[in-house]
Amino acid sequence: MAKNRPYILLTPGPLTTSDTVREAMLRDWCTWDEDYNNLVQDLRSRLLALAGKDTSGYTTVLMQGSGSFVVESVIGSVIPRDGKLLVVSNGAYGDRIETIAKMLGINYVKYRPKDSEIPDPQKISEYLAVDPAITHVAVVHVETTTGILNPIADIAAVVKGAGKILIVDSMSGFGGVSIDAPALGIDFLISSANKCIQGTPGFGFVIARTSELEQSKGRARSHALDLYDQWYNMEKGKGKWRFTSPTHIVRAFYQALIELEQEGGIAAREKRYQTNHRILTEGMLELGFTMVIPSELQSHIITSFYPPKVDDYNFKRFYQNLKDRGFVIYPGKLTEAETFRIGNIGDVFPSDMEDLLVAVKESMYWEQN
After folding, report:
1. For residues 62 and 86, what is the distance between their CA atoms, to the nearest angstrom?
2. pLDDT tens-digit profile of 300-324?
3. How many other C-beta atoms lie within 10 A of the C-beta of residue 110?
């Protein structure tokens, strides 16, 4: 196990980072310094290059806070007062977009399939057809409530075919799932530093269609989370954030971007995550666990499992047994059934997943009684 790593995080973020990413935080930076601002500008350019083949009409905005802060900055900044949002949700993170819209007083309607189902593009088309007041559509790319992979390309085709603005929460997808935002017509793609790029928590980012971002001037319902103003100041100040930026986290993220490139880019990282997922799921099925989501709908980011059908099963005990063996997993987030989740992302490799399976078998106390 790498130094300063008491256990491996098998979660959807924060996740396990490399020693070199953590070491990048050991130096202090000044937010006004030209060297730091140049690094921010380079970081923004590198992110944009990851978003698609032709990103000439797009820009990158960085925003302090967790992923939900950045989602709120988009929802609260780009929808006009007379606009209306269609929230497409099949999990807790889509539901969170609804909560944001409700608390900000944004007019919205919600399409809610079950957590175990993908959104039906035809249903979305019907919502748009019967309600011409809808101006924006928001959907989660990889819904980490379950690990389900939503059909973003099919949804984008419907939304853009209807002439609506598309917001995609790709928090757990960008960097680990291949996507071409401009080719799909995505107007705002949102992600976070501590996901598939394998940085540390502290800020998120938006890949935005520049023309749509420019139209959002004056729409923000929050001062600190004003996406347009954040972008405008970064452009004008050539990398200068409006308020104090998380300098150490930004530098760690820059190192993470370099390591992504060294690995071979998104395609190579996606392949590693897919291998992690295959080893995990095959091994867990052999041990008698059952997946929540059918394999054809399951992403390679995080996987939900049902607990064993035994009377003495206790998640906390199972969790602690795994933690004692060097692995931390996630509790489930479904309301209708008890589950737990295991992530495949981060600085985690196939050999780690094989070691995990050994630890799982050793932690199955109900099999040992």
Report:
1. 25
2. 999 999 999 888 899 999 999 999 9
3. 17
